[in-house]
Amino acid sequence: MIWEELHSELDALQRAGLQRNRRTLELPCGPAARVDGRSLISFCSNDYLGLANDPALVEAACAGARAWGVGSGASHLVSGHLEAHAVLEQKLAAFTGFARALLFSTGYMANLGIVPALVGRGDAVFADRLNHASLIDAVQLTRADSQRYPHADLAALERLLAASSGRRKLILTDAVFSMDGDLAPLPGLLALAERFDAWLLVDDAHGFGVLGRQGRGSLAHFNLPAARRLIYMGTLGKAAGAAGAFVAADATVIEWLQQRARTYIFTTASSPLIACALAASLHLIGDGDARRGRLWQLVAQLREGLADTRWRLLPSPTAIQPVIIGDNHEALRIAGALYERGLWVPAIRPPTVPVGSARLRVSLTAAHSAEQVDRLLNALRELA
């Protein structure tokens, strides 16, 4: 009976155009991809600066393995916190301008640890309706009163905050929304946090390394200081080119998370060779204005190239450029047609995005060339 139900539900996903399939990549992360022997240009990756296969990071990882081995052997609070981790945390705090930083294994685990450690029963959480799944799941673990406000709607959030009797208040938002590519109104959110005595947790998974002066992230993009009410989460497997995540905040907040964030306490620390690679990555990010400049040129090229076609681009100023299709099956058909032309662009469907808004999610990186973007533009014009 159980197996029959699973088969039935899988068949329903297939009929609705919602079944997901993996493809095995036969080359390192980069624009040039090979799947099942087929050569492709990939527009799927979040490796926005093209650092995932950069020789400097590879050499730093190799040197880290020679110095520290491969595994950490234990959780951070037992014996797994090695000097490589400590150095990286100090560099991340300095890079973001906060007092302290704390490493996590992934961005998902960071959010699942941070949110329940800060709020619980009797408290209140206010979350943007388009937040990432990790923030949505984190709220479920808190048992706090949960309120979702319409996407980027400061007036609606203000009304919810004013009506709340929560003991502690926490506002949650993505900085760059991963499926739309737009920016949260961070200055307005911080002003509301100050006015209503709330924390503001900013998930900058897609802004860290890309936005702001020297790639210091979305807070720097808006010239926001490292305020005490701000809790900043950045992931390290996207623009930083490796893996993991960190949270940066006031020293007292970080100490509290170190004592109470379950996904930090009860998991083995990440490999020290990753920490060494990330220390090298921070240098490249800080000196990466040329990479970021190339990325913005490619974004402009794509947007201008599709301006006179039927394809509707969302108003994204970031490396994430969604092309709205609408129907699930049509999105899969267009993605399949591109794939046959040697262009790998993922079709994103519900529940990742709202029903009726299936899309192609074009991710541009500094490692792409203008010629590769032209190939995508020509194919999309043909399909239009």
Automatic annotation (TrEMBL):
Annotated pathway: Cofactor biosynthesis; biotin biosynthesis
Cofactor(s) in the UniProt record: pyridoxal 5'-phosphate
Database matches in Gene3D superfamilies: Aspartate Aminotransferase, domain 1, Type I PLP-dependent aspartate aminotransferase-like (Major domain)
Annotated GO biological process: biotin biosynthetic process
Binding site for pyridoxal 5'-phosphate: G107, Y108, S178, H206, T235
UniProt keyword annotation of Cell inner membrane present: no
EC number: 2.3.1.47
Pfam families: Aminotran_1_2 (PF00155)
Catalytic reactions on record: 6-carboxyhexanoyl-[ACP] + L-alanine + H(+) = (8S)-8-amino-7-oxononanoate + holo-[ACP] + CO2
Residues with PTM N6-(pyridoxal phosphate)lysine: K238
Keywords carried by this UniProt record: Acyltransferase, Biotin biosynthesis, Pyridoxal phosphate, Transferase
Domain of life, source organism: Bacteria
Keyword Transferase set for record: yes
Record family assignment: Belongs to the class-II pyridoxal-phosphate-dependent aminotransferase family. BioF subfamily.
Subunit and interaction comment: Homodimer.
Protein name per the record: 8-amino-7-oxononanoate synthase
Protein species of origin: Candidatus Accumulibacter affinis
